[in-house]
């Protein structure tokens, strides 16, 4: 993982970032923290399709898991934000999330002796917007997960870590029949490309087109990681699927036929046994040692 030159890891920075991540001081009415929508026990995702912001203002997208987020080359589904440091500004300023401003937050933190001390230890300066965004970046880069049954099987030589159904599901996942691994590839099961995976023929949320205004980008989203799906339901940008059976039903139908739909999305047919196997494999990409890691919790060290 690449840490920016001006924001290398230190324990003091990580502690400050974690404290900020859990602190509702970041929201205008002090009602919500980052962790209100990115919950440790849900692999830093949310189980609500749309997480409400302050005063119950309606959210517009499903909160993504922050699993291995430090490896992503850009952020949000349209890929509009180049760094984690800049990403922190989005929920802070967003009307439907924290509806706050960095200078006001910094002023509140500067009035707090504990924050002044932690900020001095971490960055040798006052808690200002530069410090706040950087500390949050350091904490989020530590959210590394790589101890799923699949990892133990694939990288740690534990041939018993996957059972027979999971191994059959793995073969299906990597087959040209399903094409799953053409987009969900690599260590994080994402090639980070912007793809239209055939959810709709008309998109309520234009996804990447929101950024580029180019109709060729309508319905394209950054391919999501498939790690920790056992914790992060519901699925897709609008949380439309409650479980993985619904996801696989969707892919088997071959998509709604939007002009931008990827050619890799086309109908295929799995027996009930094969569907169960594929689901078993997808669930074997989940890492309970991650969601149970108490050092990521508010009280942990
Ligand atoms: C009200 C709910 C809510 C709060 C509060 C919130 N987020 Fe999010 N977060 C979301 C949603 C929804 C998305 C997905 C947005 C999208 O796809 O465009 C997201 C996306 C992200 C992403 C990008 C993930 C990716 O895959 O590209 C990061 C990083 C992130 N949030 C970090 C934070 C941090 C840090 C905070 C606190 C400063 C925070 N979030 C507060 C709901 C929230
Ligand atoms: C053309 C590239 C592509 C192919 C092929 C593909 N996907 Fe996806 N997948 C995506 C994109 C893009 C999304 C995000 C769509 C959205 O959020 O609207 C996604 C979302 C998902 C999600 C939801 C993840 C989440 O956290 O919300 C799952 C699960 C998933 N895909 C599994 C699969 C499986 C299983 C296959 C094979 C049957 C497959 N995908 C094939 C591109 C692809």
From TrEMBL:
Please provide the record's keywords in A-Z order: Heme, Iron, Metal-binding, Oxidoreductase, Periplasm, Signal
Can you give the residue ranges of the Cytochrome c domain? Answer: 12-113, 164-286
Which Pfam families is this protein grouped with?
CCP_MauG, Cytochrom_C
**A molecular function GO annotation:** electron transfer activity
Residues involved in heme c 2 binding: 180, 183-184
Q: List ligand-binding residues for heme c 1.
A: 34, 37-38
Q: GO CC annotation: what is one?
A: periplasmic space
Compartments where located:
Periplasm
> What's the protein name?
C-type cytochrome
Cofactor(s), names only, from the UniProt record: heme
Give me the comment on cofactor binding: Binds 2 heme groups.
- Maturation and modification: Binds 2 heme groups per subunit.
């Amino acid at each position: 993982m690449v840490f920016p030159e001006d924001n290398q890891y230190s324990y003091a920075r990580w502690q400050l970032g974690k404290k900020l991540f859990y602190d509702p001081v970041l929201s205008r009415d002090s009602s919500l923290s980052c962790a209100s929508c990115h919950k440790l026990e849900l692999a830093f995702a949310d189980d609500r399709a749309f997480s409400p912001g302050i005063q119950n203002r309606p959210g517009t997208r499903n909160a993504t898991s922050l699993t291995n987020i430090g490896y992503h080359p850009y952020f949000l589904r349209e890929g509009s934000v180049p760094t984690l440091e800049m990403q922190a500004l989005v929920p802070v300023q967003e009307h439907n999330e924290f509806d706050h401003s960095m200078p006001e937050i910094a002023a509140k933190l500067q009035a707090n002796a504990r924050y002044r001390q932690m900020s001095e230890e971490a960055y040798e300066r006052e808690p200002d917007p530069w410090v706040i965004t950087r500390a949050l970046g350091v904490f989020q880069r530590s959210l590394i997960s790589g101890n799923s049954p699949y990892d133990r099987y694939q990288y740690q030589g534990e041939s018993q870590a996957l059972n027979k159904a999971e191994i059959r599901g793995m073969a299906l996942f990597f087959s040209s029949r399903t094409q799953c691994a053409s987009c969900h590839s690599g260590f994080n099961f994402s090639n980070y490309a912007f793809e239209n995976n055939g959810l709709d023929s008309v998109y309520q949320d234009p996804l990447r087109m929101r950024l580029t205004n180019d109709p060729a980008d309508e319905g394209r989203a950054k391919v999501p990681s498939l790690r920790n799906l056992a914790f992060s339901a519901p699925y897709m940008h609008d949380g439309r699927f409650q479980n993985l059976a619904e996801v696989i039903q969707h892919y088997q139908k071959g998509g709604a036929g939007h002009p931008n739909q990827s050619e890799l999305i086309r109908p295929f047919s799995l027996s009930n046994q094969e569907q169960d196997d594929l689901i078993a494999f997808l669930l074997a990409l989940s890492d309970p040692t991650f969601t149970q890691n108490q050092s990521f919790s508010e009280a942990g060290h």
